Amino acid sequence: MKIKEKWSLPNLKEAARRTRSAVERVDQFYIPANALDLGEGKTYAISTYGCQANERDSETIAGILETIGFRPADDLEHVDLIIINTCAIRQNAEEKVLGEIGNFKRLYRNNKNLVIGVCGCMAQEDAFVHLVLEKYPQVRLLFGTHNIQDLPVMLYDVMVNHEKVVQVYSKEGEVYENLPVKRFGQHKAWVNIMYGCDKFCTYCIVPYTRGKQRSRTMDEILKEVQELKDAGYKEVTLLGQNVNAYGKDLDEGIDFATLLEETAKIGIPRIRFMTSHPWDFTNEMVDVIAQYDNIMPFIHLPVQSGDDEILRRMGRRYSAESYLKLYKKIMDTIPNAAVSTDIIVGFPNESDEAFEHTLELVRQCQFDNAFTFIYSPRLGTPAARMEDDIDMDTKRERLYRLNEEWNRHALKKNKAYVGKTVTVLVDGASKNNQNVFAGHTDTNKLVNFTGTNVRAGDFVEVLITDAKTFSLDGKAVEL
Ligand code: SAH
Ligand code: SF4
Ligand code: F3S
User: Fold this and answer.
1) Is 206 touching ligand 3 by the criterion CB < 6 Å?
2) Residue 15 in contact with ligand 2 by CB distance below 6 A
3) What is the pLDDT of residues 397-429, one digit of tens each?
4) Alpha carbon distance 385, 290 (integer Å)
5) Which of 8, 222, 240, 332 is the most buried (most CB within 10 A)?
6) CA nearest 281: which of 253, 311, 245?
7) Cα–Cα nearest to 474, from 424, 430, 399, 411
8) d(Cα 292, Cα 304) in Å, to the nearest integer?
9) What top-level branch of life does the organism fall under (predicted)?
10) How far apart are the CA of 199 and the centre of ligand 2, in A?
11) 204 alpha carbon to ligand 1 midpoint, in Å?
């Protein structure tokens, strides 16, 4: 494949650079006149992988596409534009994406005008972009996480000039305000409070794919939350790879505790936030969460490992003991708090004993929920240069034992809800039965319940009648 001069290809090494240069803040969204109605009469579909940052990016992509005339497709057989927003966090996430790109080959064969675009975190990886250019000619547009705002221009080049476009910048990144957004949810919304990450945990690709930590100003965030409240939204989730570090890169002396408190004062019924890194979790944050009823008592607090040596090699900068101390502080201060976590097994050098330390930590914390992963080396990260010395059978066995352990505690925690009445924000009705609904408690428990006259977006009091590992069952308390 000949590389065109016009293309911008990613470079993971450059992406790791951090300078002291100020973050550029861009308020204007620009669409060239000739692209204003580019999508008129055309349809689009977006396929999103990965975390909430990607979900929120897809809402921006949809917003931009609809601004230039595209409409959502009902039918993939006749769609004009497919965008695949990818995730690079683990090898299996990447494999799923490659499978999907492969599947779209057939659609492209039947419709040579179909534009298939690939964006997101995988597009920031040199090896992936080269692979796509070599092996997947049906992909006509590749753009990175820093290039979304240029979508109208890129699409013009693809659709009108019939060029293949590759535009992936590997840079620290800007903060764009006022980009169009099409929210996918009607009652719950994502609100970015910061972009990027500077933590460089040794296993993790995110600081390379998302650039440096850039906080939005508090004014912009509060304005967005106010607008969402005025539009009738019931819940916002403040998003960042590490929300606790919010504001450290601003000159304003504002931290996450202040932002949380100001957001709470707006009075939107439910505020969530994720993800919290244990390293930056202050006592002030714990106190603010405890103080305001509309800040949900649910904290996603990834621990990754319960072994100090592994934590050190992961670059997490806390010990099992300090994590436990923070956990205890949260549980003692915030009434009815629930904590979930992320754990990686099979990190290089993880001995049986080290893994036992993780199990021990899980026993002590009794997490409400956990996301558990087998370590996956990511090219370009420091851990990928360590010997991946744990064999796959051992990794699988550890994952199995870990899941057994946390499932046991989660079930026990859920059983404690039986007989209690909880407030549920309703997501919607079950597809199969119009009198069965699903929603979440303040502690983020999924509740399936029966009731009448219930609508999505309602707050409903539900009596819990049964508990499973991953959900609760109940019935609406009729008033
Ligand atoms: N910013 C968040 C994590 C985002 S990635 C935080 O710091 O907590 C979500 C989770 O994916 C991580 O918490 C980690 O458990 C897992 N993960 C990240 N890189 C991984 C890798 N290379 N292999 C396996 N799991 C990984
Ligand atoms: Fe990755 Fe660590 Fe940043 Fe989370 S804090 S995104 S795990 S580097
Ligand atoms: Fe995946 Fe990128 Fe999120 S790698 S987890 S989509 S930041």
Assistant:
1) yes
2) no
3) 999 999 999 999 999 999 999 999 999 999 999
4) 42
5) 240
6) 245
7) 424
8) 29
9) Bacteria
10) 6
11) 6
Nearest in space to 333 (alpha carbons), one of 276, 294, 285, 301: 285
DSSP for 2-40 reads PPPTT-B---HHHHT----PPPPEE------GGGTTTTT
CATH architecture for segment(s) 184-414: Alpha-Beta Horseshoe (3.80)
Q: Relative to the alpha carbon of 51, which ligand is closest? A: 3
344 C-beta closer than 6 A to ligand 1: yes
Which ligand is the nearest neighbour of the Cα of 210? 3
180 C-alpha to ligand 1 centroid (Å): 29
- pTM greater than the 0.90 cutoff: yes
Ligand in closest contact with the CA of 121: 3
Write the pLDDT tens digit of every residue in 142-177.
Answer: 999 999 999 999 999 999 999 999 999 999 999 999
Q: And the tokens for 128?
A: 């992936």
The CATH code belonging to domain 12-167 is: 3.40.50.12160
How many A from CA of 36 to the centre of ligand 3? 30
421-476, which class in CATH? mainly beta
